[in-house]
Amino acid sequence: MNINKFSFRVRYGETDQMGVVYHGNYAQYLEIGRVEWLRSKGISYRKLEESGIILPVISLQINFKKSAVYDDLITVETILKKTPSVRIEFDYKIFNENNELLIEANTVLAFLDKKKNRPIKCPEDLLDRLTKS
C-alpha cells in the first residue's frame, strides 16, 4: 500500500486564542504529508519543479472530526488513492497522539508543464517511482 505517516507538534502560532488549530492550517498539514510521501518515494518536490513539472492543487476536501490543539503531536497519514495520470489524488487522515481521528481529507493535483502552464501526463519514470510499494 502506498501510505506514509509523518508526525510533528502543533506550534503556538497555528492556533487561535483558545489554543485550537485554525482550520486553514490543515491545508498546510496536508501539504507536509504530500511532500513527505513524495520524499519517501525518493522524489524531491524541489527537483520535480526544477525539472519543469509543477503540481498545483485543483481540489481540496476536508471533513473535520475533532480539533487539534497547541502542542499536540499529530500524525498525517497520506495515501495515494489511485495510479496517477494527468492528475494525482491523495487521501489523508490526521490523528492526535491519543490516536483520535481529527480530520479526513482528499486532494487532487494536476501535473503541469511549468513553462507552458499546460496539463501533462505523469512521466513514465516518475510514475514508476510513485507506484512502487
TrEMBL record:
Domain Thioesterase span(s) in chain numbering: 18-101
Coiled coil location: none
Protein name: Acyl-CoA thioester hydrolase
Organism: Cellulophaga tyrosinoxydans
Keyword Amino-acid biosynthesis part of the UniProt annotation: no
Family annotation (Pfam families): 4HBT
Keyword terms: Hydrolase
UniProt GO MF annotations: fatty acyl-CoA hydrolase activity
UniProt keyword annotation of RNA-binding present: no
Family from the record: Belongs to the 4-hydroxybenzoyl-CoA thioesterase family.
InterPro entries (UniProt xref): 4-hydroxybenzoyl-CoA_TE, HB-CoA_thioesterase_AS, HotDog_dom_sf, Thioestr_dom, YbgC/YbaW
